[in-house]
Amino acid sequence: MMLNETDKLWLSEVIEKIKEKMDWVSDKSRNKIPYTTIDGDYDDRSIDNPSGNVADGINWWTNGFWGGMMWLMHHETGNNKYKEIAQISEEKLDQCFADYYGLHHDVGFMWLPTSVTNYKVTKNLESRKRGMHAANLLAGRFNLAGGFIRAWDDLPNTDTRGWAIIDCMFNIPLLYWASEETGDPRFKQIAMRHADTAMSAFVRTDGSVNHIVEFDPFNGDVVKTYGGQGYEEGSSWTRGQSWGLYGFMMSYIHTGEVAYLNTAKSIAHYFIANIAESGIIPVDFRQPNEPKLEDDTAAAIAACGLIEISKVVGAHEKDVYLNAAIKLLRTLDQSRSDWSRNSDAILQYGSAAYYADSHHLPIIYGDYYFMEAVFKLKGNDLYIW
Fold it and tell me: Which of 4, 84, 128, 159 has a 20 to 30 Å separation from 356 between CA atoms?
């Protein structure tokens, strides 16, 4: 990764800050699976279930990110304590398989950063089995008529049989891995069908994306779109933009299909054009001026995708994507992070959704993608997806 001397110095400093913080946070939270913080301390979704819903608690969709952070740290430092902590999370997630009810489309988010990464690093056959189990569960959600992977399970008073979401672009790498691991093309075929459907039904001509698309589950026709976690229907939920931006790059990395690269670039151009001078990313690019709601997780995810694009484009394009990524990451480091011991988390301004009950709080995947992006800039990252 070609960085100027100023950026190299900043990168070296932020990596040291990450290493220092994760050293004590990992010890303090080794038996937890965190989602957010409460008075600065990580919560524990492996034992907590704030809503009482079967899909929360141990089945919560973000429960792979803590393990992923530990594998990133193991790769960066060589310290086996991080491997040991990652394996604690992985083993706890076995309960999800045993319960079955409560599992959902986000099994990629859960088992790619944990079991699949463990298998890639250590060749642990139990981890391979867990990854294959999750891949088969994900493949089982495929709707043949519409060419999409169904999102969620039944919701109260809502028929979701035909629902798909842009987030699932991050789950389908589990299927690519399963085909690469077994030689069975079925998993890759399902992943590519879903990606193709997402290209046509989710990505708008200006590079913005829909969050939720409802299909007729019997004939595959598009029924309608929803604003989902963004401001409204037709708006531009920023984390959805970043799921699409990086997600299509993931499909390009696994398949070499140029249409996926071009789609990632289209979404990236839209995202870059909407980055404010401050570098702070709102919850929705089309939200009202007030209240000024932001989501640092969207910035971190987008930075990862922008760096991946910069690796494969020509020299005349590279800086467009790389400079945007660095701007986002510098902003996160310098004005949106807590590097002290007052908070277990690094990033402090996450928002799960525009209409969420609370905003501007740590969310575990913000830290995960921030760390992933920073290590990508170093050029020696562990590619989990």
Answer: 159
Sign of CA dihedral 32, 103, 94, 128: negative
Sheet holding 222-226, edge to edge: 163-165, 212-215, 222-226
Cβ–Cβ under 8 Å, residues 55 and 102: yes
Count of helices and strands (H, E) across the chain: 14, 7
**pLDDT higher than 90, residue 1:** no
Crossing angle for the helix pair 296-312 and 238-255, to the nearest 10 degrees: 30
CB contact at 8 A, 211 and 236: no
As a whole number of angstroms, the distance between CA 33 and CA 29 comes to 8
- The structure tokens listed for 305 are 């995708």
The DSSP annotation for 2-33 comes to ---HHHHHHHHHHHHHHHHHHHHHHHHTTT--
**pTM here?**
0.98
**What is the Cα–Cα distance from 224 to 215, expressed in whole angstroms?**
7
Bond before 34 cis per omega within 30 degrees: no
Fill in the amino acid letter for 137.
L
CB 219 within 8 A of CB 145: yes
Which of 272, 297, 277 shows the shortest CA–CA distance to 370? 297
* The two structure tokens encoding residue 133: 């189990």
Give me the percent of the chain exceeding a pLDDT of 90.
Answer: 97
**Assigned token pair, 295:** 């989501």
pLDDT at 112: 98
The residues annotated as belonging to the active site are: 106, 167
Collapse the DSSP code of 284 into the 3-class scheme (helix H, G, I; strand E, B; otherwise coil) and give the result: strand
36, 176, 341 from 354: Cα distances, Å: 17, 32, 29
